[in-house]
Amino acid sequence: MRHRFFTAALPVVVIISCVAGSPAEAQTTNLATGQNPAVAASTDTVEEIVVTARKIDEKVSDIPATITAVSAAQLAATGPVLSTGDLLRTVPGARFNNLQSPNLSEISIRGSGTERATGADSGVGLFVNGAYVGSSTLGGRNFKNIDFFDLDRVEVLEGPQGALYGRNSEYGVVNIVSARPKFADHSGSVDETFIPRLDQNQIIGIQNYALDDHWAIRVGAEGINQSKGFYRNPDDGEYYDRTSGWLARGQIRYRNGPLDVNLLVDGQDLKLPTFVVAYDATPGTLSTLPLGYIQNRFSVPINGVNQTEQQVQRTQLVADLDLDSATLTSTTMASHFSSQQYYGSSIDLATEGQLQQQGEIGAYPLSQVHTDVRDSTVYQDLHIAGKSLDDRLEWLGGAEALDQHDHYILSVATSPCTLTAKSSICGGTPTDPLCYPLLPTSTPCPTPFPAIFGTAAATPLHYTSEAAYGSLRYKLDDFTFSGEARYTHDQKIATQTATALYTDTPTVKPNNYRFSAGKASYTGTVSYKLPGSWDDMLYSKVGTGYRAGGVNSGTSTPVAPIPFRPTYGDEETISYEAGFKGNLGSHVFVTLDGYFSRTDNAITSITDGCTVLNVCKQGATIFNINGGTVHAHGVELAINSRFRLAGGDLDLSLNGADQRADYIAVNGTYAGLPIVGSSVAQIPNWTASATVNYQHPITSDLDGFVHVTYNGESGGGQDTVTIAAPFVPLAPITDVSLRTGIDYRSLQVAVFVQNLTNQTVRLLTLQTGGVTYGYRYNEPLTVGVNAVYHW
After folding, report:
1. pLDDT in tens, 358-397
2. Are residues 428 and 379 located together in one domain of the fold?
3. Domain containing residue 729
4. What share of the chain in percent tops pLDDT 70?
5. Helix, strand, coil share of the chain (percent; to 5)
6. Which helix (H) or strand (E) holds 657?
7. For the chain, is the Cβ count within 10 Å smaller at the N or the C terminus?
8. Residue 658 is part of a domain; what is its CATH number?
9. Contact 354, 363 (CB under 8 A)
10. Does 273 fall in a domain?
């Protein structure tokens, strides 16, 4: 009902916007350029964008660190923003581990790595308008769709940011800045995107209205409806990669003299893609499928439920007070999100019957996993920043508090009977057991069923964190010396329970856990402005950060080869960096850096070594431990330029990163520890991207444009390498997208193509006992049309 209401409300937004606007107030906005923020509005010079990356307004060229700012116009030029990966495609050293489902997808920067949302906090700080939005729950290591709706820019800070941003920012920070209401501006837009192959229709309406000199409002909404997809369950006709629902935002801003206050309220209710695993077992490799079994990756039958749903409600209040010599800023956020995900076995009863008919054991077709995550967060930051000594000294002091309640329920349905090539399939519930004889010769199910139907684990967590921080920067001629420091106190209280599925019978003893620790973080930087007119800079810095420990969700069998550990502690990182940033003439802006970092007690995801064929008689459980010490190093280069070419404007952006992260030591002799010398999971050795945008006037009112984006990566391993888990290489990626069209006054029409070369990428390789049995894949070539009208 809410979906229909908000979808119906979009035309109302557009109508009100058209009535509110007038020819005198109308603005023509060109989204085709999408130039790098470092590129000026003029045709052939390079300038800076102002960011708030260090909690004060400053130019990118003045910040002695690796920082990338991507504007809304630049993002729009590449095509529709459908995931967090679209925000980061031009950021050197950053990677989005896209695993089909947004609940499992994660961000990594430099050597942070990712491990498929196994319950740890992200090593990259996730912020929206300066407020922390990450969590250790499923889906808490990725941004939500509402976060990148109607944005102004994305700021990415690389390297430890623990001194200013605190917990879970040890490898970097991504801060999404929303577009705010503007004064003396009556403007808006309607944006329509249609992808024929998916039958997906996305419409966005945004209106900015200045009530007077002191009050302005901004409202927007988005509706998405999709009836098709690439990956389908033939049993019920549903698509695994479907998206539908709505999101909406309203803002009101008040400005009077030194006071500037903005109130934002937004929310979303979306059904999002889930993942699907296609079997790909060659003959003789898997004992349960000795004849092999290869599925069509686009058609995977299941008997269970496969879907992902996310709901978000959020309120933010940001206030700035100009005190002449200083500025006081308060950021307050209260949010709640819930996420439900269902996925099951990649075969159904009919397929299992066919496998048994060939004498194969196959797989249990009624397995089902259900995760139910609920997160409530209250965040408050208050800081004051100013200058003195004729602006030679810049200072900042602040305090921050976080109160977060998470509740995570993980239900796993498994077979209550031993599965053989001749057995009937046991299912149902303890009060209503069901038996499915798939063949006339199937042996009957035992009475009663000998095992439980699965487990249901609950892990409620209360996380509180308080911090005080500050910074000093002193300019001495062409040198600038800066220091940042923070002290944080974290406390986590968690309860872990597990019962047999559909019952109240405990499978493990309930446990209570409490973490309480204080952490100090710092950053020290020296920078030098080179002589000349371009403000080129050399800098060097050292910084620290940490990622908070926690409690593993789920449970494992007592007979697992690698014992399950319920808790893990903090990891800590120290990093050293040196770099150059500056203009090479008026057309080219370059950043070049190198870094080395050491991470102690690295949070590492491993498995308990279980398979359906060994003593466990069930699949593996993934959990976190403090694996050991990691050394990471890399070099990053980014080049942004703009030129006049044949009467048009040519924007070029190139970047690349060479990075390594390896375990140089492990903690103790635990059976599941990483192998010394092995690489950290999910870190490609090479990443690169390039964007080419060319715009040329056709008539006085008509421009044509073409935008090409390339992203590539190679090298690295998929999972932590242990005695029980062999090295699995990451699949190389070479992705090209294209967007081309015309601008006619206030109207833009474009065609976009994603995965232009129709590359097939195995995003994830699934293994059991070291044998590959299936894959998750990327989406094939996708063509869509987009029309945007501004007033």
Report:
1. 999 999 999 999 999 999 999 999 999 999 999 999 999 9
2. no
3. 2-187+327-357+367-414+452-733+758-770
4. 92
5. 5, 55, 40
6. strand 648-666
7. N
8. 2.40.170
9. no
10. no
User: Hey, is 134 helix, strand or coil?
Assistant: coil
pLDDT at 19 exceeding the cut of 50: no
Q: Is 286 helix (H, G, I), strand (E, B) or coil?
A: strand
pLDDT digits 0-9 by tens, 276-301? 889 999 998 888 899 999 999 999 99
Q: Contact, 342 vs 302, CB < 8 A? A: no
What does the pLDDT look like over 123-159, one tens digit per residue? 899 999 999 999 888 888 899 999 999 999 999 999 8
User: Are 582 and 654 found together in one domain?
Assistant: yes
Residues 402 and 445 in one domain: no
> Average of pLDDT values for 603-621?
78
**Exposure of 748 in the CB half-sphere (CA atoms within 13 A):** 30
User: Position 265: which residue type?
Assistant: V
Strands (E), 362-510: 368-388, 393-413, 425-428, 433-436, 454-476, 479-500
Q: Between the CA of residue 137 and those of 344, 463, 535, 626, what are the distances in Å? A: 20, 12, 44, 18
> How far is CA 626 from its chain centroid?
23
Are the C-beta atoms of 175 and 165 separated by less than 8 Å? no
Quote the tokens at residue 744: 């006619």
169, 210, 212, 251, 264 from 215: Cα distances, Å: 35, 6, 5, 11, 14
Determine the Cα–Cα distance for residues 374 and 512; give it in Å rounded to an integer: 19
Is residue 198 domain-resident? no
| Residue with more model confidence, 636 or 101 | 636
Question: Mean of the per-residue pLDDT values for the chain?
Answer: 88
Say if residue 559 is in the same domain as residue 435: no
Residues 429 and 400 in one domain: no
Same domain, 392 and 490: yes
